[in-house]
Structure formats: structure tokens, C-alpha cells
Write the C-alpha cells for this entry.
Amino acid sequence: MRASGILLPIASLPSNYGIGAFSKEAYEFIDQLKLAGQKYWQILPIGPTSYGDSPYQSFSTFAGNPYFIDPEQLIAEGLLEEEEMKEYDFGDDPRYIDYEKIYLSRFRMLRRAYDRSNLEEDEKYIAFQQENAFWLEDYALYMAVKNSFGGLSWSEWDEDIKLRRPEAVAKYGKELAEDIRFYKYIQYLFTGQWSRLKKYANDKGIKIIGDLPIYVAFDSADTWSKPELFQLDGEQNPVAVAGCPPDAFSSTGQLWGNPLYRWELHRETGYEWWLSRIAYCFKLYDVVRIDHFKGFDEYYSIPYGDATAEKGHWEKGPGISLFHAIDQKLGQLDIIAEDLGYITESVRQLLGETGYPGMKVLEFAFDSREDSDYLPHNYGKNCVVYTGTHDNDTIHGWFDTINEEDKRMALNYMGAGSLQGGFGSSKTSLDQSKTDLGTSEKEQIHWSLIRLAQMSVAKLCVIPVQDYLGLGSEARINIPATVGNNWKWRLQKAEISKELLEKIKYMTRLYGR
């Protein structure tokens, strides 16, 4: 069944408190998806973010981001007062997130709500703790200890607690009991608000596509609590870390720094940790996009301590055995494989064996030097097409920066020559078609690319909201291999008009989605 959806991170939603949240604006966006005839809302990972604010570097693969908890619901529940919200500085720019101000204000606000809660008599809270004890206990202790060490990575803690010696775990658990309860309470609030929002979406016929990073952060409760699962030495320091080799994004490669898995141990346990991780994801989402699918076939191993990713090498991953275990224990799941970048024949084979749809990104399609798997005439039906992802520029930003040959190819392929009075009848006239579009012609480029995605045979089409709005590079979410200016862009209130929703719905119906 053909369908379409929109990509918009939770953090990018408009709200009154500096960052997108599970607020009324999130419910309004779901209503807009419904009005536009969409069936999916794709988001980015929703875990608590660390240094750099990337959702792909989280303090826990199970926990939720406290920033997304909606203060207005806490006001309605009597845990906060509207007047006291003026005490906090969430930033005053509705377009871009000020993470420093969010960090300094959000936890103070949530601690106030915690102090007013009556957890001892809250049966739902007690049940939540019991149901999630397999990750919640370690996460809450980790965050409380981390806070007691001034935010330092667990690798810099005192040796006894760094190595999780039983007497140290007991000692910190007793001394930091109040903080531990606070971090559990935050997750209780997060889970309740997210569950209600997801149910609202599902009741409207909208499915949520979540995002699962292949790796966890080194500075995380996951690595600290289960170091045996990762390639660490006797002092719990990484032996090697994850990343990508040099490519079009970066001449020195991408040094992610995540610890790599000890896949042989995961196999011996029947992939127990992975199964619990995947199962938990499907409590949060309806569909899961697994990031960096290539890493399950082969993963890039970079010596720990290297300043760049240039001296890494490829190692074999778990292959199909992991996905057989998932099928056997959890059944057939709705998974999307992020198979972008340099894809080898063995990756294609693994993708084919799983049956998961891969991704097609139109901004990668127009290389005038060669044919591309990302050109729609090369698609099979079992794929998900995007104009771009969170790692790409917007359509307008992309079009402004590609070279003239690629631009000409894109215009001719999209039929955008009709904007210029039509094509000639020969190859020469195509090659010489102009690329210096007028203002009104250029304004339509995003619709030409969106139309190409919608009309393709791909079973699912997902368009970033920035592309529907026709925004430029100022609306880009992330530039890979850079730090400091990413993950900040936000949608503004009333930016999605009724006319735009009608246009999206018309195109969605036109192409049977």
C-alpha cells in the first residue's frame, strides 16, 4: 500500500518554552498531518542528549529526553504554576534552540515539579518503575552519579564507581537516593506524555517512524552498566571507536567516537541486549528506522585516540544472524534500513535477506558523471524515498550549491524544463538548457523534486517539512562532521498554512498515497 509522511523532529516543533515538546503544538501537527492526507510522522531519536546536542549521542538508548516534557501539562496537573514559569529563561528566538538556556532552566523546572509530586501513593509510577527496572535503575543511578561529579564522563569518575564495584554502587545509591528518584520521575513524566501523544496520532491514523542509532554513546548508562558488551580494555577505555571513512561529506571521514560492540559476546547471549532494545523501540514507535544499517554487515573501526577517521579499517558485523534472532523472538517487525553511503554487494545481500525497505534520497541522485541508484527509474517498490534527510541541506539549499552540470541534469530529469518553455528535441539542446532560472521558476524547484518523490514507485515517501515550506539552508538540521550549530532549527507557529496542507493533500491523492 502506497503512503506518504512528513519528517519533523520533536525538538523542531514550535512551543512556548524554547524547544519542541509533547505540547499542544505537537497535537496540532498531528491534526495537520491528517488534514494533508499523510499516514506517517517521522522523527529523530528521542533520548536525552549530551555534549553537542546530537540525538545520536544519548546518555541512554532507553531513556527519553527531559527537554520534551511539556510544562503546560505539568501546570494543568498542579505541579507547576504558570506565573513561576517567568523565572526561567528558555531563550527568546522562536526559530533556533538555545540549548545552554534549555539545559540551565529545564532541570530546575522539573525538580520543582518533582518536589510537589506525591510519588509514594502513585500506583502508575510504581508500576512504571517495575516494568522498566531493566534499564531505569542503571540510568537513574548513572545520571545521579554523573551530576555529583559535575557532569564528568563516567570514565573520569572515582575508580570504585567507574568500575561499578558493589560496595560503591550501594554507597552512591544510598547517598544519592533523592536524585535517583528524581531521574526516575523525569522518565515517568516523559513516558506518560509520549504515550498519550502517540495514541492520539494512532487514533488519527498516523503512525510514528522512530529512529534507532546503531551505536550508543561512550558516555552513557548503557556503556557504563554493561561494559562487557563493548570493545573496552581492562581500564574500561575504548580499544577502537566508530565512524565513517573519508567521503563526500568529509575529506578526513567522520569520527563519531562511539564504542564498538563485542559482537561475538552478543552472539553467545542470543543477542539478548539487542532484542530488549528493539522490543523497547516498538513500544515507543510503530516503525523503526535503523541508522547505519551497513554497520551490521561491516563496521568501520578507528583506533581510539586518533584525531580523524582516516586510519580506520573495516571489520565484519553480525550479519543476518542478528535479524534472524529478531524475527524468531519478536516476529516480523516494520523496520526501515538506512542504507545510504557507499554500499557494497554484501550489504545489498543482507538487506535483501531481511526484506527491509532501504532508503532513496533524491538529492543524491543527480550526478551527471554516472547513473545512480537514487534516480527513480532505478527504484524497486520496496524502498522509502526522501527528498533529503536531517543530514542533508534543504532542496533549495542543495540546488543553490550543486554544480552546473548536475543542476542541468536535475532540471531535465524533473521536467523542470517546462518552467523554461520546454526541452529541445536533441541531446545537444538538453545539454545546453539553461540553469539560471528566474525567481518564480526557482521558487518551484522544491515542488518539482517533491513531485518526483511522490510519483515514484517507492511504497513510502517521506518529505522533510522544510522542503514543503520551500526553505533554504538556514533551515538545515545537521551538517555531518561538524559541531556547534546543528539540531537547532524550529518550525514557527502558523508557518504551515491551510493552503499548503491542501496542496500536500492534492499531490498525495494524485499519486495514490
Q: What stands out?
A: The radius of gyration is 24 Å. The chain has a mean pLDDT of 93. The first helix runs from residue 24 to 35. The first strand starts at residue 3 and ends at 7.
